[in-house]
Amino acid sequence: MVRTDDVLRLLLVESSLTEADQVITQLRQSGHAVRATRHDTVEGIEQSLTSNSWDLVLCKSDLEHVTPAEVLRLIRSVGRDVPCIIIAADQDELEELFELGAQDVVLTSEAKRLTFAVRRELDSLFVRRLSRRNERALRESEKRSQLLLQTSRDAVAYVHEGMYIYVNHSYLTMFDYEDEDDVAGLSILDMVVRDDHAKFKTAYRQFSEKETASSQTISVMCKKDNGEEFPVTVEFSQAEVEGEDCTQLVVREAMVASETLTLVESDASTSAFREVDALTNLYNRVRFMEELNKAVAKADEGQEVSELLYIVIDDFNNIKEQIGLSASDIVLKGVADLLIEKREEGELLARYSDQVFTVLIHNGHDSYVDERAEVYRKTIEDYVSSVNGKMFNLACSMGISRITESLASASVGLDRADKACTQAQRKGGNSVVRYQPSVSDTSAISIDKSDEDSFWQEQIQEALHEGNFCLHFQPIVSLHGEEQQIYDVLVRMKNTDGEIVEPVNFIGHINKSELMIGLDEWVAPQAIAQLAEHRKEYPKTRFFLKLSKQTLAKPNIIEWLQELLVQNSIEGSALVLEISETVVLDNLEHAKDVIAQLKGLGCEFCLEHFGSGLDFSHSLNVLDVDYLKINGDFVENMSKDAENQAAVKAIIDMSKQAGKLTIAEFVSDANSLALLWRLGVDYGMGYYIQEPSENLDYNFEEDNL
After folding, report:
1. Is 234 helix (H, G, I), strand (E, B) or coil?
2. For 538-595, how does the pLDDT look when each residue is reduced to its tens digit (9 = 90+)?
3. Residues in Cβ contact with 627 at an 8 Å cutoff, skipping those fewer than 6 apart
4. Which of 155, 574, 633, 681 could be cross-linked to 174 through a Cys-Cys bond (beta carbons 3.0 to 4.6 Å apart)?
5. Can you list the domains of the chain with their CATH numbers?
């Protein structure tokens, strides 16, 4: 990569050719090799930003046909990572110009300061570009390493504190397992015959205590999943996975089986088919993401800007329900064939998931891409599918995002296209929406924020009226606490297609409105009734039930909950009421009074998102709660973040001193679970333990965490 100050690609927004020459001369005298272009109209600036890569934009503040605010909006709209410095003629306009969000504002008379500001912004730009390049190189290196491990004839596993965190295909084959999930949560001792446990543990412990990087080998008897025993040699070596120290095990049979070589040859012979979707003959998700990563890399190198179309077939789940899975595949195949017919040379078309297609267009001109998007949309709209004697008029929603150097990764570009597609669906479908980056300056209005709030409030009101909510449950399991059968109650909304909408999508739009009371008043009766029914067979089951700030402030909250308990013949001790730490601290005296009265009914209390406040020791001292649910931001992937580990440890230690029980939410991997165990947390919950489900089916008796 060429450092940005070797050749400075400069876009000058200036009407005077003489003054533009003065700025260029000044920059050249300071050591920059300047390659500049000058524009003073919105159309010219937009065309230049779209077609070319720039290192810097210098914008005069007093032009007749374009304002600095318009220039900054154009830079954001095309998604370019290019700093903008405004050159102001008048001292009085500095404050107003700074609020626009430019990297700097320099007076016309401040020649030396302009030189300094340019140098600073170019250095910063170089660091950002280098960082993105290194991140891509790291991802590519990890991908190659993963591929080498998967195709290796050696059986390789990575373990941390005796638990598997990764195994390759050969390892699974050797021990007669089909999938990585089959070994998730198992100890490495499960693969070793009992007579050799002591020998293996001694060798593993001795190696783990070594300070040198030398490897160590041991011979033991292992066993397959079907119980068959066989001799192996195990080579221990030190390794690191995603920043976590671990041990690499290379397991070799005493006599290498010929089937291993045959399997590798078979994998090689079929590798050509792994990048194609079998149904549509389009590129599949994996191959598409490879191409999208390449497009991001090219954009970062200044070679080209691409654009991404994210296409979702509208109301496809309803179609699938009417004609069945096999017949719906015929519909998707027909759509794919149509898209292939309309594809232009150089456009990469893929089936990203079930009813989602993606198109990567190597062209950065918005007008051209908009035309291509409309061609694809109209093609699907005009298509009438006939399956099993039924006729279907199809339509699609489409999102567009630009793939520019400002993206941290390909997945960011994909997420942006997905968000734009969601906006198209909210408009009723059969439309195209281009992703618009949010404006970071303080004077800007958040794009469609009020409209989005209104949309979700209408959706929730309708869902409450139609009963389009459902409950999911996630088990809270004991690590060091008393064995209990407890579930966290979670609410989900169903959209018009019957698809589940996670609360993260809508809660933020209503958490300050009175709709939260309506939602709580739907959830609580449903949950308590289901708990009462479930306790007939499992009398020890308890529910964690969330209460919003608005519900907590209801004058009749005590009578309301007491009536629900009486109606369902259930005691208050079956409920642990969850309230947010920040909500409680906003109205502390009222919250303390409500907690005391509900405890009189037998209910217990839990503070969720604990640790969000600046001084969480204050909450421990003033609130009579029984459980503290540690903020999931600290717990999720905590094994990779030393600061989060320290925060979790501090919360657990303080909680023990205060006599409170702790719950770690968002437990997402084996390393975090093992770390939480060592830190002494009482309970854990998260996708690694079990995902939320409509069923109360977790087997607490077999839980051996």
Report:
1. strand
2. 999 999 999 998 999 888 999 999 999 999 999 999 999 999 876 776 677 888 889 9
3. 576, 604, 605, 606, 607, 660, 661, 662, 663, 683
4. 155
5. 8-131 (3.40.50.2300), 154-255 (3.30.450.20), 285-447 (3.30.70.270), 452-696 (3.20.20.450)
